[in-house]
Amino acid sequence: MNGALKWIMYWTVLNCLSVVTGGLTFSSPWVPAGVAAFWAVVGHLADQWIVPRWGNLLATLAGASFMAVTLWTIPWWVAGTEVRWWAVLLTVLILGTVELVMHRYILRYRVY
Known about the structure:
InterPro entries: DUF2512. The chain contains four helices and two strands, in the order αβααβα. By secondary structure, it is mainly α. It has helices at residues 2-20, 30-54, 56-77, 85-109, and strands at 24-25, 82-83. The protein is elongated, with a radius of gyration of 14 Å.
């Protein structure tokens, strides 16, 4: 369940920011879906292993940094994709805030 919610959230934010800001230009609709799936799998595993050990703030900062590096390097993996630095920052701020709340819930109710 956690992985599916993460995928929906990541995919929605990437697509919305792509349409609204123009700072993320993907060569195919499959690119944000793939990035969201990758982040969801890594995030789901990290929620089970990293969040309980590192705590909410440190785990969120690590996750946000991972997302920023991944998003920033997508143009090197996928031709025709453009990513602006401010769009990476905006994406990470939005997703990091949501993750901070989700991690609080995970830690409080021990639902991994």
